[in-house]
Amino acid sequence: MAKPKRQGKVRYDRQNRGQPKTRQEQPSVLPAALAQRRPAPSAAPSPVVSLEPLAPLIIRSGRPFDAQTGADPARFPPPSTLAGCLRTAWARANQKAFGPKLAELAVTGPLLTRVDGDGKIVSMLVPKPADAHYFGHAEKARCVRAEPAPVTKGCGSDLPAELLPVCLTVDEKVKASSGPRWWDWEDLLAFRQGQPLDHKRLTERGWSPPSGDRRTHVAIDTKTQAAESGRLFQTEGLDLEPDNPWLEKPEAPRLRLLARCAEPLPAGLVHLGGERRLARLHPEPESAWPVAPGTWFQDIQQAGGLTLTLLTPGAFAAGYRPGWLDDQLTGEPPCAPGVRLQLVAAAIARWQPHSGWDLLRQEPRPTRKLVGAGATYWFRLLDCPSSEALDPLWLASLCDERQDRRDGFGLALPAPWTPID
């Protein structure tokens, strides 16, 4: 008796979500969740755009790519990846030549947004600040603030002169725990204004990246019928969509990348990240880009100090601190001449490796150490002509190099802070 054929495992092809491969496979009626995700009529080009990845994003750090190193963990797209994507889209839409001049097109982002079933932005997400720490579990979970504090008598440190340590505001007796790695935009503004935050609320409104979408790749040697040396490897993608979108509620929010370009961009399909993965570009109203609250800069001037929190990774010549600060840790940000600041303290996480491929020179870019998004710097305001002089600091780049600023590295959120005596 012939053995019955084994049923193959059901596969949900993430790379072609909701896109049947052949005419025969097309369903007569799309599920409600997918029907609402059909592309809307093309909107007018806009400098503010959102990107909807149609497959898990492959973003590598630039470390050696072979069987021994394993897969890079899933990564959020760095600013340079997004900048290259949008510059290419602009050049193709306007029939411009690819060359050195294209790199001068300034791009700001990426940030993260939630959209509803109609594609309308409902909220924005930002990386957790480095001065926020989680403690406790379940009902006792809480978020504790860290702030600059004077050095206790009898204690020593290897910090540079005039730089204060950052300490918890509460003496915790339990181990650190986990929490959302991305916060709602309104929660970050409230945190920067000194308001206490509820851990449960942060979790409900925040987001943490899911486990990566790992895939194994191999090239077969035709002579030996074995894997070619150095060509058996894995990639791990960041998936911003649920595994089975048709099982989700139609009104369930979904994630997109948000960016601002110096030139308006039309709707269309673009390649984002490695393996030429597709993303859909949506022009958004300029009001979708966040603006400062009414008296934000007046509050900074009255407080006599400010915090600068990185929303995208920063690239600085002096490692953890901006290169525009001198040996006394004072200086003027490139975007706000006339505003003189003094660094008081800094809270940063582990550095992030970054590299890439130089299309102009056709060679790999040197690996750099980036300051991770969420890093927070406390500054004393030494000189400020007026509150209007602080306006250029709003979501501007703090990086030393002009090209890094054009690429969107070091995007910072300024907020009021009262220096300690």
Task: Please tell me about this protein's structure.
By secondary structure, the chain is mainly β. It has a domain at 296-416: Immunoglobulin-like, CATH 2.60.40. 11% of the residues lie in helices and 29% in strands. The chain is built from six helices and 22 strands. Strands 7-3-2-10-1-12-11 form a seven-stranded antiparallel beta sheet. The chain has a six-stranded antiparallel beta sheet with strand order 14-15-20-13-22-21. The chain has a three-stranded antiparallel beta sheet with strand order 4-5-6, with no helix packed on it. Strand 17 and strand 18 (363-364) form a beta hairpin. The chain starts with 31 loop residues before the first helix and ends in a 5-residue tail after the last strand.
Quick structural gist:
With 421 residues, the chain is mainly beta. 11% of the residues lie in helices and 29% in strands.
Chain-wise SSE layout:
Elements: H1 32-35, E1 46-53, H2 79-93, E2 107-115, E3 121-127, E4 132-135, E5 142-148, E6 166-168, E7 182-184, H3 185-192, H4 199-205, E8 213-220, E9 227-237, E10 254-265, E11 268-271, E12 278-283, H5 296-303, E13 305-310, E14 330-331, E15 340-347, E16 352-354, E17 357-358, E18 363-364, E19 368-370, E20 376-383, E21 396-397, H6 402-407, E22 411-416
Antiparallel strand pairs: 1-10, 1-12, 2-3, 2-10, 3-7, 4-5, 5-6, 8-9, 11-12, 13-20, 13-22, 14-15, 15-20, 16-19, 17-18, 21-22
Helix and strand sequence = HEHEEEEEEHHEEEEEHEEEEEEEEEHE
CATH topology name of the domain at 296-416: Immunoglobulin-like
Contiguous low-pLDDT stretches (5 residues minimum) are: 1-39
Provide the β-strand percentage band: 25-35%
Number of β-strand runs: 22
User: N- to C-terminal separation?
Assistant: 89 Å
What structural class results from the helix and strand content?
mainly beta
| Global morphology | globular
Mean pLDDT equals 83
Assigned CATH architecture of the domain at 296-416: Sandwich
What's the story with the biggest beta sheet?
7 strands, antiparallel
Q: Count the helices. How many?
A: 6
Main β-sheet, spatial strand arrangement: 7-3-2-10-1-12-11
Helix content estimate: 10-25%
Query: What is the radius of gyration computed over CA atoms, rounded to a whole number of angstroms?
Result: 24 Å
At the first level of CATH, the class of the domain at 296-416 is Mainly Beta
